[in-house]
Amino acid sequence: MRSACGQARRRQRRFFSSVTADASLHSGLSLAEASRKVQEGDVRPSELAEACIKQMERSSWLNCFVTRCFDSARLEAEAADARQANGTLTGPLDGIPYAAKDNFCTLGVQTTASSAALAGFTPPYDSTPTGRLRQVGSILMGKTNMDEFGMGSGTLFSEYGRTLNPWSPESPGDEKNTEAPFLVPGGSSGGSAAAVSSGCSFAALGSDTGGSVRQPAAFCGVVGLKPTYGLIPRHGLIAYASSLDTPGVLARSILDAAMVLDVVAGPDSRDSTCIPAGKGRAGGGGFASDLLGAAAAGSSSSWPLEGVTVGIPKEFNVEELDAGVREAWENTARTAAALGAAVVEVFMPSVPQALAAYAVLASAEASSNLSRYDGLRYGARTGQTAASRGEGAAVGGGGIFRDQGELHAEITRTRTAYFGDEVKRRILTGCFVLCESAYHDYYELAIEEGTIGHR
Amino acid sequence: MKRAAERIIGPKGGAWDVFIGLEVHAQIRLRSKLFSRSQAAAPSEHDEPNSRVSLFDASFPGTLPVLNASAVDQAVKAALALGSTVHRRSVFERKHYFYSDLPHGYQITQQRHPIATGGSLPLIFDPAGPTKPKAGGAAKARSADELQGGSNDPGFHVPAIGITRIQLEVDSGKSLHDRKGEGAERSLVDLNRAGTALMEIVFEPEIRSAAEAGAALRSLQLFLRRVGACDGNMEDGSMRCDLNVSVRPAGTEGLGERVEVKNMNSVRHLMTAAAAEAVRQARQLEMGEGPIERETRGFDVSKGETIHLRRKEGSVDYRFFPEPDLPPLVVTHEHVEALRATLPELPEATMARLSAEYGLAEHLSRLIVCAAGGASDYYEDLVNGTGRERGHAAGEGSGPYRRDPKVAANWLSNNLFGLLKDQLGSGDSDEGGLERRLPAERLGGLLDLLSEGTISSQTAKTVLREMVLEDHSSTAMEIVEAKDLRQITDQAEIESLCRGIVQDPRHAKQLASYRSGKANLSKFFMGQAFKATRGRVDGKVVETSVMKLLQQPEPPAANP
């Protein structure tokens, strides 16, 4: 495995040295290394935070962030410095800078899910994952860009513009060179993937409904962990498709991802769809130590992966796969075999139907979950905007709806104005498949497929 | 009670059968809401708007529903009380529509798999009216052996209305369109009620008259209050009701097209609307104004008529689908049985027991069970003495009772309920309301004075009025002493008093009339005697005495 990843590692290192030429290399450390340095007093959390801030400023051309939290990050870092000084660090993630996808609600920090509908929305509460990271002292550097409400796979459909892949071949660092053949970072957690890949943060939270952590991680050359549904609580994650939405982790190594997972995983009384305590690995914690334990046990053996079976799903080897990707895939399989693993081809016959089932279920739930954005309680509303422009809208911030028609007209104006095209497409699809006349042929069929393919 | 299907007569003289179904929304009695920890709105209290709203209630992004286990318990208890089948697995679904007081854009409800189905509601309330005594007299008191044998047959038949389903769902908020003031018109939203737990109870269309619909709703209030699942007050909205009505030519088979009438906010309105809608349908059919079409109507209270709201074909597609934020609700058999064990005695059983144990006529036990303010407990305290265990005292003749059960029942039905009628309207749900207004021991003390002969029954009524309306602390004896109301029991004293009245020159005219054959005038003299003694005499003693005097000196010619 080491040799398979070697090439990518070398490229990444070259990239970091190019963009952090005169900065300290702190932001290029792995999370595990940074953590060890903090624990041992070799580096202060505020040094890590400053390194990330510097990197975020240098990388602003990537457009990884919707909101940057430099002020609060510095305050949090100072507090962590104090804990480091008096020996009261809470654990391995104390004082470690991280980023969160902009669909995780963050107390006092604007959270938009990259939608104009939520411009200016500042949650009065923390999501469970960001709350748990706050609890252990991790430093929130900013909120990362994404496809609006998670709907997309290129971080292209954002109210705040597209995010670029740090691995774009042309002139990284040149803000004026916008014509260069930039690469997409994948999506919808493209901002998180690009932020971790470019050294803006040591790890980032993402969310995966239909590949939104795994795919951008692959595109940006970082580790993307999409855990089992229900392992990381969804409380505070702005819903796209509730039965599929899975908070995940983007990091620079598997160990880094496991260290974050240790903190954010585990049941939450505010999310009824969590894996209950005592079932499987629901208790959270222990992922990183298990990993280290296994690595230690394997290091003395010349067949460290002996006893491990690696399945290669036949259905994933599609014709359209890029030759270079196929080659890397095959190399990795060979490496695993060389380290003692049994590599076998496996069949997942429901995979061809999975995409169709996903499209139906996700859009159905999206159409429902996004019903709340009517502009009446939070977020943007056309009536207010028109009134503030002095255009005398029929219904301003304090108008009257004389009948249901007027109310519906205002809700329609707001939703038309503030949802992006991709979101509208999925809402319409979702409304259609849930209609009485279509429910049986689409939704119920998808559920049947889903129970085979999903989970 | 005999259940008579009422037939209505159309304008051209045709007879029509009426079928009514009810859909009742009952707010579950709970401290917090169905899916959030915010305090449930108390309908009777006027809270600051939007003061009981959690982030979830206001549909803040990222918030998730967490089911309130007590709400499930309450619904299960109500379902068990109504004999419904509680399902091990039920499913919450989302029902979508846009409205300003529906923050999520959908209501969380149960559609395809409700928590309970089946069962029936016994019509404890008599559609003919709550106080009307039935011909046929007392139910037979049964022996203790019979009771302990487990037989629960009340000896009379209580008809029941079938229940289709019981489902759990959330309430919406309230929209307010404030049109006061020029240019200051505003639409306002209060989310205090949003997310409050409701049970929707859907009845089979088996109700056969408007009066029966009223009795059904009152009976439901009684059951839900008894198990503590709902306050059942329509006035403050903790219970609301829609109805559906259909008619068919009398004696034919099948059901006519049904029409829904929405948002009844009192039992009286429900009955008026049901009757008005049945008559409207009969008229339309008889006058050849076309068939009845499925539609939704409202009720115009001022005109007493139902009014068209919308056609059913134009109704919205609610796009139901299973709520993905909640796993299916599982209620285990063991849990259901544990809740069943906590159920109190249900109204039907109480009614049967009062008749069997205390020998009360059906109409009296019905009256006591249906009365507000915890009347059946109050009655048993009165009969057995407060603090004594209620029930199971039968079988030893009249010995174990501290007070005569029939006298006690009659005093409640003839005197106390009437005096407290305004204070304890039928909508009053406060258990123990009677005890609070007049402790059973105070009333008991009064009945004791009566049965000992210390006071006359006339005096007892005066003292009761005093105790209920004026003096809320003195015992009956203290009032009697203070006002000198002891009964005059000395035979000679009464006779002398009566003689004075009969021989009073001012009454010479009446005496002459009496003697010339106006026998009714004996009552005049008795009345004078009561007046002179302020009722402190036993009626029978006075009657004997007066009659003796009237007949003594000059025996009347005609009267026996």
Automatic annotation (TrEMBL), chain A:
Annotated region described as Disordered, given as residue ranges: 166-185
Protein's name according to its UniProt entry: Glutaminyl-tRNA synthase
Protein family according to the UniProt entry: Belongs to the amidase family.
Ranges for domain Amidase: 47-448
Pfam families cross-referenced by the UniProt entry: Amidase
Highest taxon of the lineage: Eukaryota
GO MF, one annotated term: glutaminyl-tRNA synthase (glutamine-hydrolyzing) activity
Automatic annotation (TrEMBL), chain B:
Domain of life according to the entry: Eukaryota
GO cellular component: glutamyl-tRNA(Gln) amidotransferase complex; mitochondrion
Keyword Mitochondrion: yes
Reactions performed catalytically: L-aspartyl-tRNA(Asn) + L-glutamine + ATP + H2O = L-asparaginyl-tRNA(Asn) + L-glutamate + ADP + phosphate + 2 H(+); L-glutamyl-tRNA(Gln) + L-glutamine + ATP + H2O = L-glutaminyl-tRNA(Gln) + L-glutamate + ADP + phosphate + H(+)
EC number per UniProt: 6.3.5.-
Region (Disordered): 128-154
Compositional bias segments (type: Low complexity): 128-141
Name of a matching Pfam family: GatB_N
Domain Asn/Gln amidotransferase positions: 377-550
Compartment(s) where it occurs, according to its Swiss-Prot or TrEMBL record: Mitochondrion
Protein keywords: ATP-binding, Ligase, Mitochondrion, Nucleotide-binding, Protein biosynthesis
Molecular function terms from GO: asparaginyl-tRNA synthase (glutamine-hydrolyzing) activity; ATP binding; glutaminyl-tRNA synthase (glutamine-hydrolyzing) activity; transferase activity
Biological processes, Gene Ontology terms: glutaminyl-tRNAGln biosynthesis via transamidation; mitochondrial translation
Principal place of residence: mitochondrion
Record's function text: Allows the formation of correctly charged Asn-tRNA(Asn) or Gln-tRNA(Gln) through the transamidation of misacylated Asp-tRNA(Asn) or Glu-tRNA(Gln) in organisms which lack either or both of asparaginyl-tRNA or glutaminyl-tRNA synthetases. The reaction takes place in the presence of glutamine and ATP through an activated phospho-Asp-tRNA(Asn) or phospho-Glu-tRNA(Gln). Allows the formation of correctly charged Gln-tRNA(Gln) through the transamidation of misacylated Glu-tRNA(Gln) in the mitochondria. The reaction takes place in the presence of glutamine and ATP through an activated gamma-phospho-Glu-tRNA(Gln).
Similarity annotation: Belongs to the GatB/GatE family. GatB subfamily.
Complex formation: Heterotrimer of A, B and C subunits.
NCBIfam families: gatB (TIGR00133), PRK05477.1-2 (NF004012), PRK05477.1-4 (NF004014)
Protein name: Glutamyl-tRNA(Gln) amidotransferase subunit B, mitochondrial
Organism per entry: Ectocarpus siliculosus
